[in-house]
Amino acid sequence: MSLVERDLKVIWHPYTQMKTALPPIPIVTGEGACLFDENGKKYIDAVSSWWVNIHGHSHPYIAKKVAEQLTKLEHVIFAGFTHPAAVELAERLLALLPDNQKKAFYSDNGSTAVEVAIKMCLQYWYNKGEKRTKILAFKNAYHGDTFGAMAVSGRSAFTAAFDSLLFEVEFIDLPNSDNIQSLKSQISNLKPGLACFIFEPLVQGASGMLMYEAEHLNELMAYCSKEGVLLIADEIFTGFGRTGKPFACHHVSEQPDIMCFSKGLTGGTMALGLTTCTQQIFDAFLSDDRLKTLFHGHSFTANPVACSAALASLDLFLDGATAINIKRITDLHAGFALKIKSHRKIKTIRQTGTILAMEWETGTDTSYFNSLRDRLYQYFLDAGIILRPLGNIIYILPPYCITTDDLNYIYSQIEQALEEISSPL
Ligand SMILES: *Cc1c(COP(=O)(O)O)cnc(C)c1O
Which of 157, 174, 195, 347 could be disulfide-bonded to 212 (CB atoms 3.0-4.6 Å)? Predict the structure, then answer.
């Protein structure tokens, strides 16, 4: 039996309608921005394997550091114990974040990093004896797939089966110069009881790479801070250079109270979650009363192997070559965007740093719309490119090491698709 046949017998894949999905593609090796299947066919990983990879696949330096760690210490309980990799990673990462970030709480993926952030905020007010339990979030937000993370995400087809069970959250539109004043008055009406505001800074990934201005985010952050509302910046997707700066929060002057990280944290090598917070939040849990403890932890909290992958990834991230690559991709994206933005089949095209997203014209024919996503996905796979459209939105966010040749090839295939994939117009 082939690997795919064996897979189809035993595996249930994520975000996949198993009845209608095409069989999965068996990948056996990865190098740089590319993945290779059993027959040696090359795929350019233009989506960084669900947005996690930043330095390329099977990076030899990360592999070496991980192997060294594995032979020293693979895991240790993190309550009552500590280890060098966790401490060093917290020290080095906190030094790169807005300077109010003082403490690091580890977990093991993005959704759990968000759960921790929400619990920190709600219990902060509980510990202080103030009744603040309402949470503010953006419409269309995506913060993960566990229940708390789903609750603070926009209601959608993904959450429909659970909507009645999700706790209530106040949702506001993304800010722009027209609505910013009205958003502030909406927040003001929620004021008594508003515990925190969670947001994806600058780019909402899962909802289709929706982008908004740093200036407006800054204004909302300042307004919430003034009201004592705690700010949670979910940098799980935007962190580690995606937006052109090390963290999206570097685009604003206000500072969040809490930040969440995962995805690129380990360079995309393995699962790790991290939630950082201010001294003020940490201090609200200090007490002789044991009830004020943050009772949260996962078996693999601060796994030493994951922390060592993150440390190795950080070494590469801080190397000058990575910043040059980020700039190179940003410039190439901008050039390509300029070239195709007036194409009749491009509805809009938008860019923040290394993230480029284009919305395809769908006309009014919804059956065409539904099939467009699948046709685009297959078109690029056939061309040896992994692009996973979100509906009619195609986005490119490659590992930073992608070659200029590979990037130009992706652009040329997009141009070809614009000509070849029949339009309903
Ligand atoms: C992916 C993502 C998450 C969830 O992370 P997982 O590791 O997939 O649980 C949360 N927030 C944002 C902004 C994300 O992009």
Answer: 174
User: Active site includes 263?
Assistant: yes
CA 149 to ligand 1: nearest atom: 10
DSSP 3-state of 220 = helix
Domain with CATH 3.40.640.10 in the chain: 73-318
pTM: 0.97
CA of 200, closest atom in ligand 1:
13
Q: What are phi and psi of 57, to 5 degrees?
A: -80, 150
pLDDT of residue 365: 61
Mark residue 48 as left, alpha or beta (left: phi above 0; alpha: psi -120 to 50; beta: remaining): left
What fold does the segment set 73-318 form as a domain? Aspartate Aminotransferase; domain 2 (3.40.640)
236 Cβ closer than 6 Å to some ligand 1 atom: yes
Q: Answer yes or no: 405 catalytic.
A: no
CATH for 3-58+320-420 is 3.90.1150.10
Could you tell me where the DSSP H helices lie in 129-250? 147-151, 180-190, 214-226
Does residue 242's CB lie within 6 angstroms of at least one atom of ligand 1?
Answer: no
> pLDDT per residue over 278-297, tens digit each?
999 999 999 999 999 999 99
Residues of the chain with CATH 3.90.1150.10: 3-58+320-420
Q: Which of 263, 395, 406, 411 is catalytic?
A: 263
- DSSP states of 370-395 as a string? HHHHHHHHHHHHHTTEE---BTTEEE
* pLDDT tens by residue, 345-372: 999 999 999 999 999 988 766 666 668 8
